[in-house]
Here is the input.
Amino acid sequence: MRTPESSFLAASAARARTMGCFARTRVEYFDYDLYDALTNTPGALDALDEIKLRALSWSAAKFAADGAYARGECAHAAIMYTVALRALQFAPFKVAKGERRVRRIELRVKLGDAFAGAKSWRASAGSYAAALRDAGLIAKKRVYINPGDVDDLSTRDWNDGLETVETYEDGGDESKSVVREGAKTMSLYLEQCNARESKASIKGIFTPDALFRIGEGCHRAGRYGRAILMYETALTLQPDGPLAKSTAMVWLECGEMHFALHNPEAAITYFTKVLKCAQDAALSSGDVLCEIAKCYDAMNQPVDAERCMARVRDDPKSAPVRLTNRIWVAWNEFEKEQNTTKALKILKEVNEIKRTPEGLYALGRVYANLSQFDAADACFMEACELDPTSPKIWLEIGTLYLKGFKLPDIAVKAFGRARELATALKLKEGGCSIGHGYGTDVEGLTKHTDAEVVSLENDARMFSGDTFQELGRPSHALREYEACIDSARIQIRKLKIIIWAVVLLQRAFRAHRERRAKQVYAGAQRVVLEPVVMRSATHEEHERYDAFQRRPRPKKTTEAAKKYDMMRVRKQHVPIEQKDVMELMKDFSLGTRHGAVPPPETKTTKTAGREKSITTAQNKPSQSKVKRSLLVFEGANKASATATTTTSSKTKSLMGFDKKPNAATDNRKSTSTLFR
Here is the structure.
């Protein structure tokens, strides 16, 4: 008589005969000595060649990896999952077609979980990406057919069945269009695959919980587009969120990643959801309002951003919990409200809780604005020790030593370091991405957006140029200004250097000319004449051509020109005789500039509350003015006839130089102005 136990053993044996090696996972165990060597000896995994891998059982390696993962030994589990994947490609499969691919996808997902448990986020994202590509959920990776040929740009799909390093590279991030449209398509496909009556090969592998784990791993690795795709797909399949954390935390991470991908509109949508249940995300409403204000700032809507920040400042219940947001609120208090006491109080409390580079940086800036340079220097130096790769801190150190301590020699080194770090951040892949809060990057490090990194590099170059100006090295300053982004303040700085260079050149030329004139006057040096240009055939040809161009040409007359000549009255030149001089001199006047004729006397009268100037002198010149002008004319003729350097006493008496100058005339009289 068959007992239930005997019937169960018979069914198990039959299932083992039909499924081949998969039934042996229950009874096979991995060799302990080999397990100890692989997990404790560096390089032992790479020493496994094809012969050794064929002798191993992939199911036994998987069983050992599952045990290590359950015990929390995630690094050992990752090694054993890798051994199982390498042994799987040599395992004999004779029953189901595509069974090797299904097991490979399952092992790669588990390998990603093991790397995530070991905090190896990049390796985790690579394993997840290999599983998703193998399952057809994301695009295949394209590689060049002939990588050595530069002219041949033809590509092909990478074979994801190979266990190589290239297979486990994540292959980059998804585009915005894929993130926006791919979530609905993927959720519909996985919903059909995971249905009860479905016979899909990947059924039960990509569950909503698995998608949440994949999204978290990609989020930690900086692949925000792929993480959003996984999160939105998982939320569509399971709106209640994962088992490990609340839905509000998933919304918060999606909002932060959308903001990092320069999509503030979508980020505001997620932050608005979080605002309704902020406590589920272990935050206060003030934290969420700070994030919404940052999104409004990115959208160039300062009014809405200020409205959110005013709500945070005025409502004590909306006080933020995150240290970064508390620091930002304190700086907002100082910058907008000029409330120095409250800003210092908040920043000191934050730094007492935890001394972070961002908190010390903000505290140092407040001290620098209050001209407390020693306290600011201490804060900046401590912040630099905690985060030495932040260009923002080095930029403030240089500004402090340039404008505060007046030490440009030290400031120029700090500005150079800030410029180098900003350039490195700009060139580094993912270096400009934003990490927020608990569960992403390290809390409290100074974080920068792409625009901030570009602005920091430009400011570092500009301040370096200012420092070189202080050091008296304008050529270095001009070189730094040329490398900056062209703007009004850069143009003004360059123009100052150019104008000052022109002024110095003029001064040097004038000094040289004065020195040469003194040497020539003293007889120490002769006057250097211009060299005589020797005549040549070319000069004669030019002269002949110029004479040909200046030759008299016959005037072309037309009927209109003849008619005009007849109508035109031609003036004839009449020689001036001596008797006509008096007639010509009647209306002649030298004016007030030469000091010969005084200006007409005027009287001012007030009529109806306003002043009117009435000229008493007539338009016709007086007889005394005519005589004085005649005297000037005769004196000039006599002076030119004598042609002597000194003026005779008779000429002086005729001109009136022996008399006292009139008060109404200009005191600056000279013979040169009279003869002009």
About this structure: The radius of gyration is 47 Å. The first helix runs from residue 4 to 19.
